[in-house]
C-alpha cells in the first residue's frame, strides 16, 4: 500500500479509509483473539467461548462483525457452524504484526494514546 509519493508531501496518494476500517476492526481484543485462534484452523462458537471466557452472544456478535468485513466465513455442519479465515493473507498480516511488536519491544504497549495504560486490554498468546 503506497501511502505517500517520493516527494516531501505528506498527503496520501491512496484512499486510506479501507485500511483504517481494517485496522479498526482488528483493534478489538476479542476480535483479534478470535482471528488469532482461527489461524490454527476452524473453530465453533463453543470453542471460542471456552478459549475467550466470553458469553456466546458476545462471541457471536464479534463473529458477525468479522463475517460482515469479509475476514471470516462460516461452514454449516448439521446444527453447528465452523468458522475459518477467508483469506490466508490475514495470517501473514498477524504474523507481521507479531514481528513488528517484537522489534519495537514495549514501545507500542507504552504508547500514551493506545498503549495498555491508555485503557487497552491485552493478552499474550496462550494466556487466559
Automatic annotation (TrEMBL):
Coiled coil: none annotated. Residues 11-105 form the HTH arsR-type domain. Pfam families: HTH_5. It comes from the Bacteria. GO terms for molecular function: DNA binding; DNA-binding transcription factor activity. PANTHER family: ARSENICAL RESISTANCE OPERON REPRESSOR ARSR-RELATED (PTHR43132). PROSITE patterns: HTH_ARSR_2. InterPro entries: ArsR-like_HTH, HTH_ArsR_DNA-bd_dom, Metal_resp_trans_reg, WH-like_DNA-bd_sf, WH_DNA-bd_sf. This is DNA-binding transcriptional regulator, ArsR family. It comes from Mycolicibacterium rutilum (Mycobacterium rutilum). Keywords: DNA-binding, Transcription, Transcription regulation.
Amino acid at each position: 500500500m503506497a501511502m505517500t509519493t517520493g516527494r516531501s508531501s505528506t498527503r496520501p496518494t491512496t484512499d486510506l479509509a479501507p485500511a483504517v476500517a481494517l485496522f479498526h476492526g482488528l483493534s478489538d481484543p476479542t476480535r483479534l483473539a478470535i482471528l488469532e485462534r482461527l489461524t490454527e484452523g476452524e473453530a465453533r462458537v463453543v470453542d471460542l467461548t471456552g478459549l475467550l471466557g466470553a458469553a456466546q452472544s458476545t462471541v457471536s456478535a464479534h463473529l458477525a462483525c468479522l463475517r460482515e468485513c469479509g475476514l471470516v466465513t462460516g461452514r454449516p455442519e448439521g446444527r453447528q457452524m465452523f468458522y475459518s479465515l477467508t483469506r490466508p493473507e490475514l495470517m501473514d498480516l498477524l504474523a507481521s504484526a507479531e514481528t513488528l511488536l517484537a522489534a519495537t519491544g514495549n514501545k507500542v504497549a507504552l504508547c500514551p494514546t493506545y498503549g495498555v495504560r491508555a485503557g487497552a486490554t491485552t493478552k499474550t498468546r496462550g494466556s487466559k
